Each structure stands twice: as structure tokens, then as C-alpha cells.
Amino acid sequence: MNLSEKQIERYSRHIILPEVGGKGQEKLLAGRILIVGAGGLGSPSALYLAAAGVGTIGIIDGDLVDLSNLQRQIAHSNADLGKSKAISSAEAMQAINEDVNVRIYQERLTAENALTVINDYDFIIDGTDNFSSKFLISDACHFAGKAYSHAGILRFEGQTITVKPGETTCYRCIFGAPPPAGAAPSCSQAGVLGVLAGVIGTIQATEAIKYILGIGDLLTNRLLVYNALKMSFRLLEVRRNANCPLCGTNPSVTELIEGEQAVCDLNCDCTKTR
Amino acid sequence: MKLEINGLSIETPANTTVSQLLSIQKVKMPDMVSVEINESILDRKTFGTTILKEGDKVEFLYFMGGGK
Fold first, then answer.
1. Which fold has domain B2-62?
2. Would you call B44 and A159 a contact, using CB atoms and an 8 Å cutoff?
3. All domains of chain A in start order, with CATH
């Protein structure tokens, strides 16, 4: 692939970086990243990955843009209310950079479609808002052998980890299985500071870009926990777990599970004491 | 004995188990917490029988399901 003059200008601030250069930019243009969920985390990821010139970006989301989304889901605007989130975010990406080939999936990621969808990509970004999807992504990426970035946000806190299946600590190494129904509050019940999604989502995009470029140290075997009120970033070392139900020595999860756990609809305040 | 919990130093009685520590720390829903001791994740089934030692570094890792 040869960069055009326009591309050399567009990506000049990348190309000037010795760690990226023209070769790195070409890698990004050949890169394929899937974003699952065009919401709070997926929006900033999508916009920055498009701006960075990632050549193929898949966006999968079955929801429509709602007014309560606009406080944090910055890929969508007033004019997009009622529109498919996958289409709305694809339009936002395309408006930034016509180099990007956006693939739109107006559906949820399910146990049936997950492997087929994921297989077309190099790196997966988990921008979903519920545990069944997060565990599904973890498992599907494990079976497909695809690296992914996990993240979760709630109130003023967020956490994220990058996983290279079979090599580094995975989501199930840490959390095993979804929490019991009713135990976990969701953002709609507990609230979330909008900008928090931007901080964590852009970290996920950073990881995806580093992975494609093959530079630096990925956020593997370390869980990054961010607290916006304290303005603290803690990096917790987490080793692989031999008892992990997915990547441990005697795994119990051997196929994809649909709807392993729904998000609760109870009004709980279980994390108030943290 | 002294323990380090989520980066903060705290004093607990000797022979405290992980279940007792969760209760001392007023964690209302232990189901929502994964516990890591000295960088290794602890099997949830052993919270009641795992006795902490002086100087253990304990992390409570919370399920965080939001994103959209």
C-alpha cells in the first residue's frame, strides 16, 4: 500500500512519530477493528479510530439513539434521535475520514453470530453495557483467538484490561461468571459521569491502535481502575488463574452461552461502600 | 495484623478470613466482588476458609457492567 499525498498530510502527526512512521500508518489502514456497542465507550473509540485511519471498523449495535444517550455517547447528535446507533456512529466516522471502510451491523452480538462477526477483525473493543455481552465477548474472543479490550464503567469509576486469549489474564480469570441477578446495578439505575466513558473509551482505542502497530506494552495482566472523583488511576497486577472456567487448566466453558446473565432491574446500592 | 486493602493499610485481628474481612470492610454484596490476594485471584468458594496473613496485599475487584 502506498500513501497518497493527501494521506501523508492527513496522517503527518502519526507519520512523524518514529514508532509509527509511514509503515505504521499503512498497518493502521490495513487494520480491522470491531467495536461492540456504539454507546458511551464505543463512541469515543469509534471517532478516534476513524480519525487515526484504521482501514476497516466494524460497529455492531441493535439499539436506536435515545435522548438520554446524548449526555455521553458523543458519536450521536440531536439529528440522530431515533436512528440506528450503528448507522449514526458509522456516519460520524465517515464524516471524519473517508479512508475508513465502516461495516455496519444493526443487531446485537449473540452466541449465534459472535464468532462469524469477530472472525473478520484483528482486535475487538467491548463497549457493551451488560454482563451477558461482556462474558460473551470474552468467550468468543477466546475461541476465535482474538485480542480484545474489556471495560466497564459505573458512577465515577471505570476499569479496563486488554486480553490476549491463552496468553494473558482474561476477564473470566478475574470475575469467573456473571454476578447473581439483581446484584449488579446498571448505569441507568446508578448513573454514570458522561466524561468517564470518554476517558475509558479512549484508553480502549489506544490499546487497539498499539495492538495493530505492535508497539509499546499492552494493558495485559493488569487491570486499570480509574476513579474520577479521587482522580486516581490504579494498576492492579492480576495473574492468570489456573481455575479460570475459560482459559484455566480444566475449563467448564467450552462453547458460547447466550444470555448468561441479564442486567438486574432491582434498585441496589451494593457498591456504595467502596 | 496489618493488611493492605486496595492500596490502603488497615489493621485487622489475627486469623481474619476473607469473609470476615469483607464484613469488616462493610462490603454489602460480596457476590459483586472478586478478591485478589498478592496478585492471585482467590476461588470464591474459599472466602470463608482462607485465613489472611500479616502483610497480605488484598484487592477487592468489583463487577462493573456499564458501558453504553
1. Ubiquitin-like (UB roll) (3.10.20)
2. no
3. 31-237 (3.40.50.720)
The letter for the amino acid at A271 is T
> Do B37 and B57 meet the contact criterion of CB atoms below 8 Å apart?
yes
Show the cell assigned to A18: 518514529
User: Which runs of E-coded beta strand occur in A84-199?
Assistant: 101-105, 123-126, 147-154, 157-163
Share of chain A above pLDDT 70, in %: 94
- Residue A145 to residue A119: CA distance in whole angstroms: 9
User: Cβ–Cβ of B66/A241 closer than 8 Å?
Assistant: no
Look-up: residue for cell 471517532?
A47
Q: What is the DSSP letter of A142?
A: H
ipTM: 0.89
What's the rounded Cα separation, in Å, for the pair B58 and B49? 15
- Determine, for residues A40 and B65 on separate chains, whether the beta-carbon distance falls below 8 Å: no
Output the 3-class SS for B7-39.
CEEEECCCCCEHHHHHHHCCCCCHHHEEEEECC
Supply angle C-alpha B57, B59, B60, rounded to 5: 150
Residue A7 DSSP class: H
Contacts of B7 in chain A (CB under 8 A): 234
pLDDT in tens, A62-120: 999 999 999 999 999 999 999 999 999 999 999 999 999 999 999 999 999 999 999 99
